[in-house]
Write a structure and sequence with these properties.
6-stranded parallel sheet, 25% strand, Quinone Oxidoreductase, Chain A, domain 1, 30% helix, alpha/beta
Length: 325
């Protein structure tokens, strides 16, 4: 099979197309022929060395396709021919992958394989942030950074449906318009305006109950200034670079604030939790309640270009890779 391999950390050019033997599924694994691969920031962090990995590795933590074999002697809920999706682990930038059965989710008939590959990771992330990390309720307000991004557009839809007031940030007027269409009440262009001052103005000086910040280095400190006393800063990404070590006293000074740094794996740690969150997201797509915007699709050989585009800040929604054109 064809796959993308990284031998050492570096820029997008370290993503090399290689020929490897077809994988053979072991116990409690399925072999999946991959039709669509989701491109995510986590793969950028792994490629650059921000998240240490063992090399050589096949990157890729999200994909969808068809089951072509099940490990010998294994009892499985899925069968050969089922359309499935998963997120987690690595090895998805390939034509085929061995996937642990406990990660696989069947794709509802109404959802395309591309849509499933596009929402597993970003959709479940938006879902846990809006429903579990800080369960949004009517009358509450939130600030969502990068509101027109992959996570952002899904998040705006979920947060507004929960009845919260949604303030977003985005870097261009075009992105701001997409975030508004997705449900944000107001979008601040944070490349032109001081977003903390604007949030304070929009909330009559009170601040919001929660800030969801995936941008990190360039926004985290001002994000604290957007919060009402006892508010929560949810730092869930590093798109602009990692946040430096923080003196906890800053939380006291700025209003006895709370800070959390969550990651999806802990919110889908059991099979039940994964099944519930994945079906909430996939059923939302199936019912037409959750719109999935696919920005661009690349061939497998163009994996480096796909990651470079995600890093370039020019995307709104999902970047996909399709192994077979
Ligand atoms: P996005 O589509 O949101 O792309 C990142 C966006 O961040 C850009 O489009 C850009 O939006 C904004 N941004 C601001 N500054 C920069 C910068 N210097 N370089 C690049 N981008 C910048 O990506 P994803 O939806 O895939 O992921 C969003 C974030 O969520 C990532 O940080 C990711 O790591 C995190 N994440 C965290 C998870 C978790 O469980 N903790 C799970 C999934 C994702 P704009 O142009 O509008 O500023």
């Amino acid at each position: 099979m064809k796959a993308i391999q990284i031998d050492a950390p570096g820029g997008p050019e370290v993503l090399k197309l290689v020929d490897l033997p077809d994988p053979i599924p072991g116990g409690n694994e399925a072999l999946v022929r991959i039709e669509a691969i989701g491109v995510n920031f986590v793969e950028v962090y792994q490629r650059t060395g921000l998240y240490p990995m063992s090399f050589p590795m096949i990157p890729g933590s999200e994909a969808a396709g068809t089951v072509v074999a099940i490990g010998e002697g294994t009892q499985a809920d899925v069968k050969v021919g089922d359309r499935v999706a998963w997120q987690g682990g690595s090895g998805a930038y390939a034509e085929m992958a061995r996937v642990p059965l406990n990660l696989l989710v069947k794709i509802p008939d109404e959802v395309t394989t591309d849509q499933a590959a596009a929402v597993m990771l970003q959709g479940m992330t938006a879902h846990y942030l809006a429903n579990t990390t800080f369960p949004l309720k009517p009358g509450e307000s939130c600030l969502i950074h990068a509101a027109a991004g992959g996570v952002g557009l899904l998040f705006c839809q979920m947060a507004s449906r929960l009845g919260a007031r949604v303030i977003g940030t985005a870097s261009t007027d075009e992105k701001a318009e997409l975030a508004r269409k997705a449900g944000a009440d107001t979008v601040i262009n944070y490349t032109k305006q001081d977003f903390a001052a604007e949030v304070k103005r929009l909330t009559q000086g009170r601040g919001v109950n929660v800030v969801y910040d995936s941008v990190g280095k360039t926004t985290w400190e001002q994000s604290l200034d957007c919060l009402a006393p006892l508010g929560l800063l949810v730092l869930f990404g590093n798109s602009s670079g990692p946040v430096p070590p923080i003196d906890p006293q800053i939380l006291s000074r700025k209003g006895s604030l709370y800070l959390t740094r969550p990651t999806l794996a802990h919110y889908i740690a059991t099979r039940d939790a994964l099944a519930q969150r994945a079906s909430a997201v996939l059923n939302g797509v199936a019912a037409g309640a959750l719109d999935v915007r696919i920005e661009r699709t690349f061939d497998l050989a163009e994996a480096g270009a796909a990651q470079a585009l995600l890093e370039s800040r020019k995307t709104s929604g999902k970047v996909l890779i399709k192994p077979a054109p």
